[in-house]
Amino acid sequence: MADIAIIGDKDSVLLGRAAGLEVYFETDGSAAGRIIDRLAAANTKVIFITEPVFEAASETVKKYKSKPFPAIIPIPDSTGTTGAAMRNVSANVEKAIGADLQF
Amino acid sequence: MAISYKPTRMEMSRLKKRLTTASRGHKLMKDKRDETVRRFITYVRRNRELRVRVEELMSAAMSSFVLAKAAMSTPAVEEALCFPAASAKIEVGSAKVLSVEVPKLTYIPSGTHGLSYGVMGTSSELDTAVSKFSELMPLLIELAEVEKTCNLLADEIEKTRRRVNALEYVMIPQLQDAIHDISMKLDENERGNLTRLMKTKDMLKAKEG
C-alpha cells in the first residue's frame, strides 16, 4: 500500500498517478468516506482529497482529525479552489484563539 | 456542585493541600496554553503561506492537464497514465510539540523523475502537467505536515483552555469557599468552648463564695 493517496474526480486526480500516488476516482461523499476508512486501516500516511469531496465526506474527515495519521488534506480540483481548505485553516485559528485573526 | 466536607481540622488541611495543587496546576496549564498558542501561530502562518502557494501551483498543473486532454483523446491520456510510476514514499517520524504528538513527514522522490509512458502518441502538454505535479509533491507533503500539526495543536489548545478555566473559575473558588467555611465553623466552636469555660468558672466561683 502506498504512503500517499489521492481521492477526487477523474480530471483532477489522474495526474497523481504519474507522481506515484495511489489514485481513487470518487465524487460521492459516503463512498469516499469508506475509502478513507480503508486507507487509514492500511496505514496510509497522507490522503489528499479534492475540496468538493472533502466537504461531502466531512463526517469521516472529522473522525481522523485528532489522530496524527492519516493526514487528510484538501486540495483544489481542476475547476479551481472553492475556499473550503482556507476556511478549514481559519476554523482552526478560531478554535484555538477564539477569533479568526489575519496574520 | 459544591465540595462536601466535614468541619474538622483534618479536613481543612486536606483541602488546603488540594488548593495548593490546584493553584500550581492552574499556573502550569496557563503557561502551557500560552506557549502552545505562540507555536500554533507560527505554524498557522506557515500553513496559510503554503496553502496559497500550493493552490496556485496546483491550478497551474491542472490547467496544463486540461490542455493535454484537449490535445489528446481521453482514452489516450488514460492509457498513458494507467501504468503508475514507482510509488512515492514518505519517511514518517513524529515530533512532540509540548507533549502533543505531531507527524514529521519527509518526501522521498520515487527515484526516477522520468515519465512512466512513452513519448509516442502523447502530447508535450501532458509532460508539462506531469512534471509540474511532481515538482509540487514536496510542497504538498510539507503542507500535509503543517496542516495536520495545526489541527492537532488547535485541539490541544482548546482542551488546555477548558482545563485552565475549570481550575480558575470552578475548582479553586470552591476550595477557597470550603476552607473559609471550615475555618469559620472551627472558630465558632472555639468561641463556644471559651464562653462555656468562663461561664463554668463563674458558676464555681459563685458556689465557693
Tags for this entry?
heterodimer; A: 103 residues; alpha/beta; Rossmann fold; 5 helices; 4 strands; globular; B: 209 residues; mainly alpha; Helix Hairpins; two-stranded antiparallel sheet; 9% strand
Question: Can you offer a commentary on this structure?
Answer:
- The complex is a heterodimer of chains A (103) and B (209).
- With 103 residues, chain A is of the alpha/beta class.
- Chain A has a single domain, classed as ATPase, V1 complex, subunit F (Rossmann fold, 3-Layer(aba) Sandwich), CATH 3.40.50.
- Helix content of chain A is 47%, strand content 18%.
- Chain A has five helices and four strands, in the order βαβαβααβα.
- Chain A has helices at residues 10-18, 29-41, 51-56, 58-63, 84-97, and strands at residues 4-8, 22-25, 46-50, 71-75.
- A four-stranded parallel β-sheet of chain A has the order 2-1-3-4, sandwiched between helices.
- In chain A, strand 1 (4-8), helix 1 (10-18) and strand 2 form a beta-alpha-beta unit.
- The model of chain A has no long low-confidence stretch (mean pLDDT 83).
- Chain B has helices at residues 9-71, 74-82, 124-208, and strands spanning 89-97, 100-108.
- Chain B has 209 residues and is mainly alpha-helical.
- In chain B, strands 1-2 form a two-stranded antiparallel sheet.
- Chain B has a single domain, classed as Helix Hairpins (Orthogonal Bundle).
- Helix content of chain B is 75%, strand content 9%.
- Chains A and B meet through helix 1, strand 4 and helix 5 of A and helix 1, helix 2, strand 1, strand 2 and helix 3 of B.
